[in-house]
């Protein structure tokens, strides 16, 4: 059974104002773990203290490409101190997407150092890794083909796979056993073809089928994320939690 977490980027506006209070609210809503995207000036001791108080598990940390390249030892030390097992490559800026072979070599080197320190490195996708190609295949597949599983695992963002026009269920099957973490989010498409993330159950993504497949495959954590919230972000994650609870009542295999 998969555990349920939240990518804290979703509630970044609240974290900026009240880091500890926001984590308390996340726990009160029923989320079991959190994936960090910054620590808002807190020390490892302060982060560990609020995690202990709330009972939240640290799932992973989205860590910028710059920090992974230039401050990896600091990131490893910080994350080991708070009990985190996974560093996650979150996003590649558009002006760097013409150098995928170099990025892949960097992932190998970063993955080796993480493995030596007892941490796992994961890659989190958006749509462009699927719509862009490298040597005739989607970049995402090229990355996972060229970097060994022991150096790089998968954090599949199922929503962006859907938006890119690919089948997230096929990707869960393709990388079975290599996906410890999966992002569950929903979107609506605008008239101009762009996407806007919405609360679970309010968009076009087949999130039930994705959650079913992820749980069946042994994914450790299903992580709710909403890149943009039209209203209050805490209200949004509460709405998404209600969808999760309804899904569980219908037999969904998520621990809430």
Structure characteristics:
TIM Barrel, Xyl_isomerase-like_TIM-brl, isomerase activity, 8-stranded parallel barrel, Sugar phosphate isomerase, two-stranded antiparallel sheet, globular, 13 strands, alpha/beta, isomerase, 12 helices, 256 residues, IolE/XylAMocC-like
Task: Name the beta content range.
Answer: 15-25%
Average pLDDT over all residues: 97
Rg, nearest Å = 17 Å
CATH architecture: Alpha-Beta Barrel
What do we call the CATH topology?
Answer: TIM Barrel
Low-confidence stretches: none
Query: Could you say how many structural domains there are in total?
Result: 1
Domain Xylose isomerase-like TIM barrel: 23-245
GO molecular function, one term: isomerase activity
Organism: Paenibacillus woosongensis
Keywords: Isomerase
Plain-language structure description:
Pfam families: AP_endonuc_2. This is Sugar phosphate isomerase. It is a single chain. The chain starts with a strand and ends with a strand. With 256 residues, the chain is of the alpha/beta class. Helices cover 45% and strands 20% of the residues. It has helices at 12-17, 19-29, 44-54, 65-70, 72-81, 100-116, 128-131, 139-146, 158-163, 168-174, 207-217, 233-249; strands at 2-7, 33-36, 57-62, 86-89, 120-124, 133-134, 137-138, 153-157, 181-184, 186-189, 195-198, 221-224, 254-255. It has an eight-stranded parallel β-barrel, surrounded by four helices. A two-stranded antiparallel sheet has the order 6-7. It is built from twelve helices and 13 strands. The mean pLDDT is 97. The chain is globular.
């Amino acid at each position: 059974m998969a555990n349920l977490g939240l990518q804290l980027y979703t509630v970044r506006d609240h974290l900026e104002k009240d880091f500890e209070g926001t984590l308390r609210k996340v726990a009160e809503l029923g989320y079991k773990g959190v994936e960090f995207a910054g620590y808002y000036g807190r020390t490892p001791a302060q982060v560990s203290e609020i995690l202990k108080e709330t009972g939240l598990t640290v799932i992973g940390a989205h860590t910028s490409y710059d920090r992974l390249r230039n401050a990896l030892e600091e990131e490893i030390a910080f994350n080991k101190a708070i009990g985190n097992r996974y560093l996650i490559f979150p996003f590649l800026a558009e002006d760097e997407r013409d150098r995928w072979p170099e990025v892949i070599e960097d992932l190998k080197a970063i993955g080796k150092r993480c493995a030596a320190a007892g941490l796992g490195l994961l890659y989190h996708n958006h749509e462009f890794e699927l719509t862009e190609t490298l040597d005739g295949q989607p970049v995402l597949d090229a990355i996972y083909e060229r970097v060994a599983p022991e150096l790089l695992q998968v954090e599949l963002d199922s929503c962006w796979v859907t938006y890119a026009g690919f089948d997230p269920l096929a990707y869960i099957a393709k990388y079975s056993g290599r996906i410890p973490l999966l992002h569950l989010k929903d979107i609506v498409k605008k008239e101009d073809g762009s996407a806007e993330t919405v609360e679970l159950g309010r968009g076009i993504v087949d999130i039930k089928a994705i959650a079913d497949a992820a749980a069946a495959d042994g994914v450790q954590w299903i992580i709710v994320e909403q890149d943009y919230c039209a209203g209050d972000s805490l209200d949004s994650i509460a709405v998404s939690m209600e969808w999760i609870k309804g899904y569980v009542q219908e037999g969904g295999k998520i621990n809430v």
